[in-house]
Amino acid sequence: MAVVIDTAPRTSEPAASAGRAPFEIRKIEIADVMDCIAKGVQDFGRAPLYGMFFGAIYAIGGLIIVWVAFAMDYPYLAYPFIMGFALFAPFGAAGAYEISRRLESGEPLSWSAVLGAVWSRVGKELAWLGLVSLFTLIIWLDLAVFVFLMFYGTNIPSLPDLFTNIFTTPYGMMFLLVGNGLGAIIALFVFSITAFSPPLVVDRDVDFVTAMTTSVRAVMDNPWPMLAWAIVIGADLAISFATLFVALLAIFPILGHTTWHLYRRVIV
Quick one: CA dihedral 39, 43, 46, 52, positive or negative? Predict the structure, then answer.
């Protein structure tokens, strides 16, 4: 049986190889973000099994991360591990981008077509983007360990005692504030370089550096709409964690579909 792989020509951008930013950035409003979310929900409703497949893969990955943290007797690292794992969501959503692209262009959906296209487009540029996120994850975890040791030293309290200390003492609240504050700075950086770069390198022939700088430009040109989108992502991830990743079955593909529509609306 033949495997159908998408062979649609990808846009060639001569200016990209010359080091210039070849893409026009459109201005959007918060209403555009909401409209793209609605389109993302619509795409998920049109192809729920495909979306849930990719959502399940990501959910299983999250559960493995939590299991590893507890199995290595580092339960206090479970939270930063999970938040760090979220850095790879834009890359894991490549399947959702392909589904939305096919729905948008009227191309038929099939497992061989979707998986084949995703595999064929996971080239070196997307791999380089993933490497940047991996490097950021390492920094994230190193920083998390440093902050924890700075507040609690090597005498690691039991998990119940740690939660009690964090949420009932000024010292614990300061630890929570510092840790999440530093994490937010790193998350903002990662969000800026990955908000549009993964669908951009998947959809067009462009190097990963140009894709990242274009993503940063798009975020800076649309600060309030993109801040609203970041808040939506954070809220959805919080819901997913609270449901032990079960909600990711729907939330993950919807976020991926929405990202595709935002990319199409913002970057020309």
Answer: negative
Phi, psi angles (nearest 5°) of residue 172: -65, -40
- Would you say residue 131 lies in a domain? yes
**Distances in whole angstroms, Cα of residue 168 to Cα of each of 46, 147, 176, 202, 219:** 46, 19, 11, 47, 37
Residue 17 maps to a domain: no
Residues 6 or more apart whose CB falls under 8 angstroms from that of 189 comprise 136
Report the 10 Å Cβ neighbour count for 182: 15
The range of the structural domain enclosing residue 34 comes to 26-108+118-266
Residue (of 224, 219, 231) closest to 184 by Cα position? 231
Residue written as token pair 């995703």: 118
Q: Residue 10 falls within a domain, yes or no? A: no
Report how far residue 168's alpha carbon sits from residue 170's, in angstroms, rounded to the nearest whole number.
7
Q: Which two three-digit tokens encode residue 18? A: 């010359």
pTM: 0.86
Whole-number Å distance between alpha carbons of 2 and 113: 10
Q: How many Cβ atoms are within 10 Å of 191's Cβ, its own excluded?
A: 21
Tokens of residue 99, six digits: 């589904």
The fraction of the chain above a pLDDT of 70, given in percent, is 91
Q: Is residue 84 part of a domain?
A: yes
Judged on CB neighbours under 10 Å (0-12, 13-18, 19+), 145 is middle
Q: What's the total number of domains in the chain?
A: 1
130 pLDDT exceeds 90? no
- Per DSSP, the residues of 115-159 read HHHHHHH--HHHHHHHHHHHHHHHHHHHHHHHHHHHHHTT-PPPH
- Calpha distance 165→157 (Å, rounded): 9
Q: How far, in Å, CA of 77 to CA of 135, rounded?
A: 17
Pairing of strands 204-205, 11-12: parallel
139-157 pLDDT, tens per residue? 888 898 899 989 988 877 7
